Amino acid sequence: MSDVVGSLEAANSPTGAVEKHRAAISGSDDGAGQAPKLKRHPEADLRGKVVIITGASRGVGKQAALDFARRGANVVLAARTVEPDPTVPGTIGETLKQIEDLGGQAIAVATDLAKEEDLKALVNAATSRFGGVDILVNNAAATQGEIWGKSFLELTREEWEYQFAVNTHAPFTLTQLVVPIMAARGGGRIVNLSTGSGEVFRQAEEPTKLNAVGGFSLAVPGYYSSKRALDRFSNCMAPEFHEQNIAIISLHPGLVATELVAIRVREKGLDPTVAVPMTVPARMIVYFSACEDPWEYTGRLFWAEREMAEMGIELDEELDQETAHAAH
Q: How far apart are CA 161 and CA 222, in angstroms?
């Protein structure tokens, strides 16, 4: 799930955060201590690889699922939304049909990420249908409901724990379930969708976070705290997983033009023009999953738009156009 709140903060910050971030992308930022540019590595063939994607009924998760399927991967779709809901667009059944229409292979597994038994059933479904798991994309997050408008003192312990159950504990459990499977298959990749933080912007300290933009609350302490915990989990586990040829990488998608972002931007009267297409973070999810040498990236947190520009990574449709042009 894209970082709706953190991205809206960047898009509407009176301090001009978007301009600063885009300057950093182009290399024109005057900030000190910039990290060396990342190296782009060749991408391996994903045909036959088995990918689990949570939050695959809409948004970045759905787009990534379609992109993996186009590359020949076998995709396991996980989400709670099975039946159409008038309040939120998309179902895993719709994503499944689109993949099948592309000629791809996929299964849809109804999954409540807050329930451990559902997570075990998801991994069992993947191994039963496709024989294993090679890539795990922890994309889903708890981003709906009244919790988004509540201040810290209004937040109940149950609501706080639910944010951690979905945003932190579910990735922990899924990772614990798939790591032995990946190790037995010679290695794998885990990509965790995160939120904006100090590592993303390569600053020595995290910038002060805005509490609100106009009447739109940006507090959401459970979301930010649980996502930062997920960041640290990835960082902590990277050395151990490296020994098993498994890379674990965190990715901040930025402000993405998902269906839910469009709804919230419209409701709050915010500026939608800075949103990037869903294809941008989806492309970076695929890149980090397919790159032949992931060890420069493992245990670190990246920003999709900046990294895509810095490494010169093309969208899949741009690659298709280049290939067709070369053929003629």
A: 8
Report the pLDDT averaged over residues 249-254.
Answer: 89
DSSP structural state of residue 276: B
Query: Which of 71, 75, 49 minimizes the C-alpha distance to 61?
Result: 75
Instruction: List the domains of the chain with CATH numbers.
Output: 4-12+44-327 (3.40.50.720)
How far is CA 235 from its chain centroid?
A: 16
Sequence-distant (≥ 6) Cβ neighbours of residue 159 within 8 angstroms: 147, 150, 222
Task: Give the pLDDT confidence score for residue 270 in this predicted structure.
Answer: 60
Distance from C-alpha of 194 to C-alpha of 201, rounded to nearest angstrom: 13
CA-nearest of 287, 289, 174, 282 to 237 is 174
Q: Assign 293 a pLDDT band (cuts: 50, 70, 90).
A: very high
Number of continuous H segments (helices) and E segments (strands) in the chain: 12, 9
Q: Does the pLDDT of residue 172 top 60, yes or no?
A: yes
Count the neighbouring beta carbons within 10 Å of the beta carbon of residue 177.
20
pLDDT band at 37 (very low <50, low <70, confident <90, very high): confident
* pLDDT greater than 50 at residue 14: no
Q: Cβ distance 37 to 25 under 8 Å?
A: no
The answer to whether 54 touches 111, Cβ cutoff 8 Å, is yes
Angle at which helices 4-12 and 221-242 pack, to 10 degrees?
110
Task: Give the amino acid at 243.
Answer: E
State the DSSP code for 185. T
What was the pLDDT predicted at 176?
98
Cα three-residue angle 175-178-179, rounded to 5 degrees:
80
Which has more pLDDT, 252 or 12? 252
How far apart are the C-alpha atoms of 314 and 318, rounded to whole Å? Answer: 6
In order, the DSSP letters of 221-268 are: HHHHHHHHHHHHHHHHHHHHHHTTTEEEEEEE--SB--HHHHHHHHHH
Who contacts 28 (Cβ-Cβ below 8 Å, separation ≥6)?
A: none
The Cα–Cα gap between 17 and 255 comes to 12
Provide the 8-state DSSP code for 39: P
